Amino acid sequence: MEKQIKLFLEFLENDKKVSSNTLQSYKRDITQYQTYIEKSRKNYLKINSKDINEYFEYLKSLNKKTSTISRALASIRSFYQFLLRTKKVKKDPTAGIQSPKVEKKAPSILTSKEVELLLEQPKNVDLKGIRDKAMLEFAYATGMRVTEIISLNIDDINLKENYVYCHTGFKKRDIPLGSLSMKALKEYIEKARPILIKDESNKALFVNVNGKRLTRQGFWKIVKYYKEQAHITKDITPHVLRHSFATHLLQNGADLKAIQTMLGHSDISSTQVYMQFQNENLKEIYHKAHPRA
């Protein structure tokens, strides 16, 4: 099984071109499944749907979230599809097994005033402040995921046309940049980044104080630091900035399809979760403006 897992992960990385984070998720899910199979003394090539359901019952007994179990099923299904393709198994034991329904929670968002307060915190007095200002403005201006932002290279920014070229795996999209984000980004690229990078061959757009490509953890720490500086009580993560980006666009009249494109959602149902906030906004406008409200 160890060998097949290795081949499966290589297939995901080299053929499917999945991101490093996605690859790690698959690895965690399949490794946990492998541990269970080996402890149960079962042959992974002779597993049936009953065995798969027993595994999910086992995950439930560990108080795993529905979303975790749903993701585990997707990973195991992909693994057996790979084994089917390479003729190691004749049937996919996950076929016909329904993914547990994951309840979509309302995303946490910031108000426009809270966003403004957060973005006011970094001061352009030193290299770090210039970088942080550019980074926070950029995150809110584009709604990009953390992994996408830290994966960007300097060549992915078009300063003349004011857009960023985002590409992860096979998905590619151009996202426009607003004037405030462009101003902060230009200052960072011209004044701070050339001094921060220690190696001219380093193409990373956002780098840490050691000149290396910024990590997810580094990004999260920066957001958390300025959240505390702004005395905002809400829990703010880079993903909250993404949610706020989408919600504020929708509340100000942007087309849902356009927001879907900018966010990189393959299914518009993922974007429609923001409609509830638009509805709240419309109610507020109605009660303020309608003479009989």
Q: Can you give a write-up of this model?
A:
The protein is mostly helical. The chain folds into 2 domains: 2-85, DNA polymerase, domain 1, CATH 1.10.150; 112-287, Orthogonal Bundle (hpI Integrase, Chain A). It is 58% helix and 5% strand. The protein has helices at 2-14, 20-39, 49-61, 66-85, 112-119, 127-142, 146-151, 179-196, 216-229, 238-251, 256-263, 268-271, 275-289, and strands spanning 157-158, 163-168, 171-176. It has a 3-stranded antiparallel sheet with strand order 1-2-3. β1 (157-158) and β2 (163-168) form a beta hairpin. α1 (2-14) packs antiparallel against α2 and α6 packs antiparallel against α8. It is globular.
Helix percent reads 55-70%
- State the CATH topology of the largest domain: hpI Integrase, Chain A
Q: Provide the residue-averaged pLDDT.
A: 87
| Total domains | 2
Rg on CA atoms, Å: 23 Å
